[in-house]
Amino acid sequence: MSAAPASTTSAPKTNPRSRVVVASLVGTTIEFYDFYVYATAAVLVFPTLFFPNEDPTASQLSSFVTFALAFFARPVGSILFGHFGDRIGRKTTLVASLLVMGIATFLIGCLPTFGSVGVLAPVLLGVLRFAQGVGLGGEWSGAALLATENAPEGKRGVFGSMPQLGAPIGFLLANGLFIIINAALPAGADGSPNADFQAWGWRIPFLVSSVFVLIGLYVRFRLVESTVFRGVQESGSVAKIPLGRVFRTSWRAVLVGTFGMVATYVLFYFMTTFTLNYGTTGTVGSKLVPQIGLGYSRGEFLSLLMIGVVFFGICTPIAGMLADRFGRRRTLIPTTIGIALFGLTFQFWFAAAHGPITVVTFLIVGLSLMGLTFGPMGALLPELFPTDVRYTGSALAYNVASILGASLAPSIALKLWQPDGNIFLVGLYLTIAAVVTLVALLLVRETRGTDLADAADDDQPAAERVAP
Fold first, then answer.
1. How many domains in the chain?
2. 165 three-state secondary structure
3. 3, part of any domain
4. How does the UniProt record describe the way this protein sits in the membrane (predicted)?
5. b/e map of 264-279 (b: 16 or more CB within 10 Å)?
6. Which end of the chain has fewer CB within 10 Å, C or N?
């Protein structure tokens, strides 16, 4: 008997699970590391280094405006990188978004200040912050798609939570570095940064980000395209203009996805930026904000906050596992109700909390809720869209939500924070955001059983498809 001929075809390449986890995690870690570094600098040094001709409160608000620029740039990045992510593939687009984000962050660390080049300094800061936002606009969605489109059956929730872990890890890396810098360059008696930190110390975290970017590029260059996207290419279902197709066929998904993320964003920025500002204002004092706060030193409060962030990290994959077992909606709806109730406790709990045990308990509860609401989003948003517009659609929902829920949150909190220390209105704002998100989640369909290989809707016109 003659031997059967050897097969001339080989199984398509797939990404090892460990590589998927690392590649999806590293980009979002850099994303949130960059956010925390910028947010810290926006409070500590940018007002005096880039906006010195304004009064202290106006300088702080101007600094927050540059902080907000990135959020308004994110939808631009969503459209740009979403277009190429849905047209040419996830891998190349992920590399490009990481490069844009990393280069902008590194250059911020090299910027001259107002004292050197005058008004050009804040202009350059704004341009680079906007570029940062464009890169960020394409980063999260690509990382989430990398995780979910390569996930084993029944594990999309937990795999989708891996990019979300970048938030707590980025926080720990960024603020851990600032604690080290503060120890080496101690602040003055009034809590203000010393001369060395003002001159060059603040630049270190921005420059260090380049190391993380190089690691991310190394991992991502070794990826291959997901099976589901290759299926779209092979079937000739690639959309010519993904943005147009999203608004024509998936606009409801964009709306519910956007409003479904609003409370997550508000909670996230309140529990990090606002609590840090409130916790370190008062008897120790900040000349930038006239309101009364808890009066901890920056180092003391960061230590308490980092304890809470550990619980954020623990709850994020737990939420992914719960979403796999019980469904996305059954995990997120009770969590959102919890967020709404938590917002009503701000004044009665956090404002009266002068002891570190009460403060850290408040932070643990809030950041645990953050992990529970943030974890399932890495799977839910991609699952709302067909493969041929998944990058664009999920990126739009995620990043438009960042404008509604996050870009103005620090400024709104500053306005709602009363001079006598009353923060009830700040918490009420979070509660209102949670109600908005709850309505969206009640309207969204359950996506746990969605087949991601269902590449495109059957009614897609041939004119909107291109050959692979």
1. 1
2. coil
3. no
4. Multi-pass membrane protein
5. bbbbbbbbbbbbbbbb
6. N
